[in-house]
Design goal:
Length: 256
């Protein structure tokens, strides 16, 4: 047990992504606050450490016969940025407008019996307002820099180099914005009673809550891939100290 309790939460998820189910269940943040030990994370949430370890062991056992890890775990640098754009950014662009429409409809119909929907709708709008420019910054500034870094690396010493400082600034900005998104998601979850459907919820209301659960899980995975896999790879390559601790980064170093 001690082996696991002293490991970083981000590391535990990178070693076995199926463990996200356990962390989602106990509401332990593995994406924005993954750079702390399981022991510290449980203490911060006031959860019994032994229960979490037991749940992780059970999840590991259930996945013992599944050898294959998700293919994105093996991706590095620009390939990982491409994957994030194609999956998570595309998902958000497709889902957010539809979800907003549904949210507005449900709020109009149910706001008298569930006035918390009015605040929740405002918070959801704030989430969209943060996410759209955030994705644009990644797609137009940070990810192209990562691709350029890979390109110049493959062209050898003669190619113009990207300066550490010019890369560190967007990395930090994105991490800061991830924290803000994480905070907004928590606010939404709290306002809507952990997305549990009230007894009088109609099918549209239930559809909205299920959509929010999916959105939350996807965003956790999305931010986890960026904070705990992609950004540490870039920092290690550039020799920039990792503010989350060197052991946050995953796997072998990315060498363009
Ligand atoms: Fe992203
Ligand atoms: Fe991001």
């Amino acid at each position: 047990m001690s082996e696991m309790t002293d490991q970083l939460v981000s590391r535990l998820v990178l070693d076995a992504p199926h463990r996200t189910i356990v962390f989602e269940h106990f509401e332990i943040d593995f994406c924005c606050n993954g750079a702390r030990s399981l022991r510290d994370a449980c203490r911060a949430r006031g959860i019994d450490l032994a229960r979490v370890v037991e749940a992780i062991a059970a999840a590991d056992e259930a996945h013992a016969d599944i050898d294959e890890l998700p293919s994105w775990l093996g991706l590095r640098g620009s390939a990982l940025a491409d994957h994030i754009e194609r999956t998570h950014h595309a998902y958000l662009r497709a889902e957010l407008p539809t979800m907003m429409e549904l949210f507005e409809k449900v709020t109009v119909v149910h706001r008298l019996r569930h006035p918390e929907l009015v605040d929740a709708l405002r918070v959801f709008q704030a989430l969209i307002n943060d996410l759209v420019p955030h994705m644009e910054s990644e797609e137009h500034v940070l990810f192209p820099m990562i691709r350029r870094l890979e390109e110049t690396g493959s062209k050898g010493a003669g190619a113009p180099r990207i300066q550490c400082a010019s890369l560190e600034h967007p990395l930090r900005s994105m991490e800061f914005e991830h924290d803000a998104v994480g905070g907004t998601l928590s606010e939404l979850r709290e306002l809507l009673e952990r997305f549990e459907a009230p007894e009088d919820a109609c099918p549209s209301y239930r559809l909205l809550l299920n959509g929010l659960i999916r959105l939350e899980r996807d965003l956790h995975e999305h931010i986890h891939k960026e904070n705990n896999l992609l950004f540490p790879q870039v920092r290690r390559l550039m020799g920039i100290p990792d503010p989350g601790g060197s052991s946050r980064s995953a796997g072998p170093m990315w060498i363009p």
